[in-house]
Amino acid sequence: MSRRPSLPHPAATVLAVVLSAGLLAACSGGAPEPSPSTSAATVSPTLTPTPSPTPTEEAPPTSPTTPAFDKAARSVDDPASLWVVSDKLRALDPVDYVPGDLVTPDVAHQNPPTLRAEAAAAVVEMFRAGEAEGAGAFQVQSAYRSYDTQVSVYAGWVQRLGQAQADAQSARPGFSEHQTGLALDISPVPLSCALQACFGDTPQGQWLAANAWRFGFLLRYPADKVAVTGFTFEPWHFRYVGVPLATEMHDTGVTTLEEFFGLPAAPDYAG
Question: Taking the domains of the chain in order of start, what are their residue ranges?
């Protein structure tokens, strides 16, 4: 009777497989790599985002403050000051004052165009600009007059018109702006409307009324300020006060020196 071969025990089979794997590893000269564990894994750090700065509203740029015009920068009493105010209540002191820097500019004229140096230079520039801007040619009708000359001029007006009317059109000696060397009467070339209200209607008169301030001149006796200045409208009579003051008066719309400096109106002489 033949015998059936016996099968190996399952445990013996598993042991044989394990021993075979160990022999193979020993033969290859290396140990089996360990399985990675969770504790050995590298963990990347969590990055906290940097908060964006909160935008702030910038204050609008501030423009530099324009300093207020200094009305006390020059004297209104000193006859040598560019801002001297001479009217029927304010005689020059001394009454026979003579400017120390009189010159005679090279401009067209009916009478000597003598003025103080700064005013003379401004007249040259103003006449050139007016002609270049299409107003026509200008000339000086009258400029500086000494105290003695004003004595003769005023006496002539009194003889022709009587004292009351003369006082409305001509200053008494010692009270005249012409004596300061800062005032002049202007007429057109060719001569027309000299020392007459119609000068204001000429191209030259209209241009001066609109532009004289650019060169430091003031239309001294406006038509609507007779009660302040004491003189009838003289569109030909311009007074040099310098560009800063002329510009300030133009920009503020003040047309008389009396009002600008807060001085009393001078419609009549005190006596």
Answer: 102-260
CB proximity list for 1: less than 8 A, separation 6 or greater: none
Q: Residue ranges of the chain with pLDDT lower than 70?
A: 1-64
| Residue range 107-118, pLDDT digits in tens | 999 999 999 999
pLDDT, residue 16, reads 43
Residues 234, 248, 258, 259: which is the catalytic one?
Answer: 234
**The pair of three-digit structure tokens given for residue 204, joined into one six-digit string:** 């030259």
Distance of CA 26 to the CA centre of its chain: 101
Q: 223-262 b/e with 16+ CB inside 10 Å = b?
A: eebeebbbbebbbbbbbbbbeebbebbbeeeebbbbebee
pLDDT of residue 67: 84
> What fold is seen in the domain 102-260?
Muramoyl-pentapeptide Carboxypeptidase; domain 2 (3.30.1380)
Instruction: Give the model's pLDDT for residue 53.
Output: 55
* 58: annotated active-site residue: no
Q: What is the DSSP string of the chain?
A: -PPPPPPPPHHHHHHHHHHHHHHHHHHHT-PPPPPP-GGGS--PPPPPPPPPPPP-PPPPPPPPPPPPP-TTSS-SS-TTSTT---BTTB--SSTT---S-EE--SS-BSS---EEHHHHHHHHHHHHHHHHTTS-EEEEEE----HHHHHHHHHHHHHHH-HHHHHHHSPPTTS-GGGGT-EEEEEEES--STTSGGGGGSHHHHHHHHHGGGGTEEE-S-GGGHHHHSS---TTEEEE--HHHHHHHHHHT---HHHHTTPPP-SS---
Q: Which tokens in the block code for residue 54?
A: 């909160």
